[in-house]
Specification:
Blueprint: H1 7-23, H2 33-39, E1 51-52, H3 64-74, H4 84-96, E2 103-106, H5 108-121, E3 125-128, H6 135-142, E4 148-150, H7 161-166, E5 172-178, H8 190-200, E6 205-209, H9 219-222, H10 226-229, E7 234-239, E8 252-255, H11 258-264, H12 276-286, H13 289-312, E9 316-317, E10 324-328, H14 334-343, E11 346-347, E12 358-362, H15 366-382
Parallel strand pairs: 1-11, 3-4, 3-5, 5-6, 6-7
Antiparallel strand pairs: 2-8, 7-8, 9-10, 10-12
Helix pairs in contact: 3-12, 4-12, 5-6, 13-15
Length: about 375
């Protein structure tokens, strides 16, 4: 079968091959025609003109320093990740008053969260509020070894810590809390959560997923990491996906007592599964406080825009301490609303479980958030609101 290239396509592919040769030290590797054609269609983010506000991504990252570090690491991509792994672990340990053996890295926090869900599901049920980021716990359920026990929904969408504690029965192996919570965006009071963790960890393991902690108004106070050194049966998960803008680079970690980390890593691949570029970017990002503050400022600005638009259009939203807002659409169906927004080239989330009138929208670049703001009254009018 013949394969013909236009001059424009041929020149474009030639530049890709030349770039590959330069990175590979001059060793030219040609691609098969089918791979060449596919390479021209690659897209690593949203299409031009589309506001992607559906995945809690931070489009202001990775930082300039992270990009430089990852670019350098790509040139060593032939080798399994090496000294940067203990370097990153030591950086995390130092900041949190821990040691390297308190930490397990993975591809995003999803890796360690899934490993922990599988480990604990072998012992009993996973308990959580009605709405929480349960994707990783569902992995254990899908394997037929787990069960998620949920609290009844609360009127204000908050996590009822007293009810959660009272729901810890002998068949519960772990309580899972996202703080701030996803998809509700609500944060539990840190003093109340701390008291809960201490009390609950005497009955079962407590997992606190702090993916959005750095976006909150007081990250240090809101974190439960100090409970680990105090000897409580508490795990804390964090990620480079959110405030550091590295969702596509997949770097996250779990913190717990050394013996718990050792047990956890029997269910995962540990640092062997990490990639050179992601870890290099994480090392470069971790102490880049200037970028963290910049990201936080832009996220808060976008969040204020969303909340203002919601209020202006007669809607309400749950109080957010995150990079997204959970909007109450009243009598409108959230899936229909999502579809109508998509027609405006604005991507958001639809229905969660049976919360048919709640819609989650992420922050993003200010022009993209402005698209949401501008589209909101048009979509509400089209839906008869």
């Amino acid at each position: 079968m013949s394969f013909q290239l236009s001059r424009r396509r041929f020149l474009g592919q030639s530049s890709l091959v030349a770039a590959a040769a330069a990175v590979g030290g001059g060793q030219l590797v040609t691609m098969a025609p089918r791979a060449q054609a596919a390479s021209m269609d690659l897209r690593y983010g949203p299409a031009t003109g589309v506001a992607k506000l559906n995945a809690n991504e931070n489009p202001y990252g990775p930082s300039r320093e992270a990009v430089a570090a990852m670019t350098a690491a790509i040139n060593q991509g032939a080798y399994y990740v090496g000294p940067t792994v203990p370097m990153l672990m030591d950086m995390i340990a130092e900041r949190n008053g821990l040691t390297r053996d308190h930490i397990s890295l993975s591809g995003g926090s999803s890796g360690v969260l899934t490993s922990l869900a599988i480990e604990k599901s072998r012992e009993g049920k996973i308990l959580g509020p009605d709405l929480f980021w349960d994707t990783t716990s569902k992995k254990a359920v899908a394997q037929g070894i787990g069960e998620i026990k949920r609290l009844p929904k609360t009127k204000d969408l908050t996590v009822d810590l007293d009810a959660l504690y009272n729901a810890i029965t002998d068949d519960v192996a772990m309580v899972q809390i996202c703080n701030p919570n996803n998809p509700t965006a609500i944060m539990s009071d840190p003093d109340e959560l701390r008291a809960f963790c201490i009390k609950a960890s005497k009955k079962c393991t407590v997992l606190v997923d702090e993916a959005y902690n750095e976006i909150t108004d007081n990250p240090e106070k809101n974190s439960m990491v100090s409970l680990i050194n105090e000897g409580h049966d508490v795990y804390v998960a964090k990620t480079f996906s959110k405030i550091y803008g590295m969702a596509g680079m997949r770097v996250g970690y779990m913190m717990a007592a050394p013996e718990k980390i050792e047990a956890l890593e029997r269910f995962g691949m540990g640092s062997y599964a990490m990639n050179q570029a992601g870890v290099a970017g994480a090392v470069a990002s971790y102490n880049d406080q200037k970028f963290v503050e910049y990201s936080k400022k832009k996220i808060w600005e976008a969040r204020d825009m969303i909340n203002d638009a919601v209020k202006k259009n007669g809607l309400t939203a749950a109080p957010s301490q995150t990079s997204f807002v959970f909007v109450n659409l009243g009598s409108l169906n959230a899936e229909t609303f999502r579809q109508e927004m998509a027609k405006q080239n604005v991507l958001i989330r639809g229905i969660y479980q049976d919360y048919t009138n709640w819609s989650r929208v992420s922050t993003g670049r200010i022009p993209d958030v402005q698209r949401y703001v501008d589209a909101l009254p048009r979509v509400l009018e089209a839906m008869g609101a």
